[in-house]
Amino acid sequence: MENQETNGVVPLSYQTEKPISLSLEPENSDEINDSPIEQVRLTVPITDDPSLPCLTFRTWLLGIVSCALLAFLNQFFGYRQNALYISSVSAQIVVLPIGMLMAAKLPNKMIRIPATKWSFSMNPGPFNLKEHVLITIFANSGSNSVYAVNIITIVKAFYHRGIHLMQLYYYHQIQMLGYGWAGLFRKFLVDSPYMWWPNNLVQVSLFRALHDVEKRPKGGLTRLQFFLMVLASSFAYYIVPNYLFPSITALSFVCWIWKDSVTAQQIGSGLGGLGVGSFALDWSTVAGFLGSPLATPGFAIANIMVGFCLVLYVLIPVAYWTNSYEAKKFPIFSSHVFDSNGQEYNVSAILNETTFQFNEQGYDDYSKINLSIFFSYAYGLSFATLAATLSHVALFHGRSIWKQTKATLQDKFGDVHTRLMKKNYEPVPQWWFYTLFMVVLPLAMLACEGFGGQLQLPYWGVLLAMGLALLFTLPIGVITATTNQQPGLNVITELIIGYMYPGKPLANVAFKTYGYISMTQAIMFLKDFKLGHYMKIPPKSMFVVQLVGTLVASSVYFSTAWWLLTSIENICQPSKLPEGSPWTCPGDDVFYNASIIWGVAGPLRMFGRLGLYSKMNYFFLIGLLAPLPVWILSHKFPDHKFISLIHMPIILGGAGAMPPARAVNYICWGSVGFFFNFYVYRRYKGWWARHNYILSAGLDAGVAFMAILCYFTLQVRDINGMRWWGLDLDDHCPLASCPTAPGIEVEGCPVF
């Protein structure tokens, strides 16, 4: 659904003997000197050297360059048909030899800053682990996309309107709004040993592989050697799916057998259908939208795949082939909007070009907005997921959160990592967070109220969005910190402002961005703080690096987007682009269609009494009640530990990454995840503990490096290889998107 910023999922199989808890005290004596989470015990060191320098010249130089470069590359590739996400792992690997070279070659003479008492050395000693971690935190800021860029994109490339350049400057401050209240939740989401943030363990493992002195086991490899082997293999192989044979990113053999059957292709297409029998031989297909399955706990993989299968193989087929909501008039899977005749919706007929507001008369004369059956139920399930998130956290974690709230001032810390941090470093003062919030909030309101009110959102909309984000930060943070799955606020924010302030598309997307991204940024801030917690980085250094990194990243994201939008003719308009042009903006296309659904027509005409999908509101009730039976059963049968691992918010949101993710992404992701985080984890736990996260990092880095090399050496010069069947970035299922209702005519499709 839309642009979920969930860059990933969780690690391994979370097979603990006790259900996850927020208890303040360890559950047995073995946990007193370490984390109560087994995966953390296997991965995170329990030592610290407070004397190591952190904010050095090398940290600032390599950190800012890494941040800016990743921001540029991710925005650059984000507009392309086969969007590439380059994670901070790439920078984490590259900066190590550069940092060591700087330590060997730069002079260690002290340099005094003029007119101040400050001085620094360009070479304070050997390049150390803490410098490396802070540089990676910089890179994390650059690798996390700036959601507000989507607004600029749809205004210029889809609605074809202008936007004030100074407005961009103020609007990018939104990236720091969530930092203001992140400090409120440090005790719950960082200090608590039960909030373990599984995805951080991938980077912890890689840091250890790169820095720990390790003796090679007899007949085996050190972790660094294993990483380099995986990196080289992934790098060499990715030229095949990326350049020579792109069709192996989605292989749907059912379509090859039944070439003339719409139904067979709807069932078998991995890109435009249900994906039965589809698969891929490409790591970017496995990890591209859902994150690395190697970094996802087994219980989360199981919950996600159960939800995915129930939606895609039970709910959607029943709804489509019973013609629910006239589903057969439209593709079975699409994020576009349609009119009552099955044609793509003509938005200009219902939008006043002068006022840029909803044209009710044009709407009444034209058609109600229709959605594909998958897209309509995707919205319903997003309603259920949000409601289930609140009730799940209240039922399963409410008592522990309340106890922890009362104990906040008593400094009751539950594991060795928290005790070391408290002993060795000063915490960030709360007033730092509050001051930042009070500085950024007026800028956010200025971006909306100033510049002729281009964004259409009044100041009270900003304040309401802030309140909504604050309300959901803790419950969604708990789920993210324990499952690596992050439910988004994008749909609920669209719904609320759509009812309160209908007919204004930019007001809708601006409110969504303020509400959704400020919460997401708060959670990202806390996630990075937990990484620093594991690696024993001074909290004040973490705060400064995250703040500067966010400013640099958001500036580069906006500058890159503006450059591309003003230099590439017909960007994001596939029908007007030259043949083979990659600048199709698939993610922004979903964002644009959401602005039509929620902003132009509005929820009243979509999901209210004037719309076709009013029954989707029952999903709020379904989601609210869904965790209750699981909670009751977990208390009635406490010896059945598997019950407490049934996670209804994750099941209901299992298919939440679709679109833009497709069936083939889920099938490959789930298969790889089950193999490594159930079979390998249980049968070969020693190998898993030593190599699992290293394998994930090596595969990611190899794909990223080869994609960059291919683009800047070949594809940027239009050297795309010889033309053949396998060069198409498609699964060769052209009929999968065809309607099956009688009399509906769509180009390239048979008429029934």
Outline the structure in words.
- The chain has 752 residues and is mainly α.
- 55% of the residues lie in helices and 2% in strands.
- The protein has a two-stranded antiparallel ribbon.
- A hairpin with a 4-residue loop joins strand 4 and strand 5.
- Helix 3 packs parallel to helix 9 and helix 4 runs parallel beside helix 23.
- It is globular and about 80 Å long.
- First-to-last CA distance: 31 Å
Residue runs with pLDDT of under 50 for 5 or more positions:
3-33
Number of extended strands: 6
The helix content, as a percent range, equals 55-70%
> What does the average pLDDT come to?
82
Q: Main sheet?
A: 2 strands, antiparallel
User: How are the strands of the largest sheet arranged?
Assistant: 1-2
What is the 3D shape? globular
Structural class: mainly alpha
Count of DSSP helices?
29
In terms of DSSP E residues, the strand content is under 5%
Radius of gyration: 25 Å
Short overview:
The protein contains 29 helices and 6 strands.
Features:
mainly alpha; two-stranded antiparallel ribbon; 29 helices; 6 strands; disordered N terminus
Write the layout of secondary structure elements.
Elements (H helix, E strand, L loop, with lengths): L37 H6 L13 H22 L9 H18 L4 E3 L6 E3 L7 H15 L5 H10 L6 H7 L7 H4 L3 H6 L8 H12 L11 H15 L1 H6 L8 H5 L4 H7 L14 H5 L10 H24 L15 E2 L12 E2 L4 E2 L1 H6 L4 E2 L1 H35 L8 H9 L5 H20 L9 H25 L6 H11 L4 H31 L3 H29 L18 H16 L16 H8 L1 H10 L11 H5 L10 H21 L1 H29 L39
Antiparallel strand pairs: 1-2, 3-6, 4-5
Helix pairs in contact: 2-3, 2-4, 2-23, 3-4, 3-9, 4-22, 4-23, 5-23, 5-24, 6-19, 9-22, 9-29, 10-29, 15-28, 17-20, 17-25, 20-22, 21-22, 22-23, 22-24, 28-29
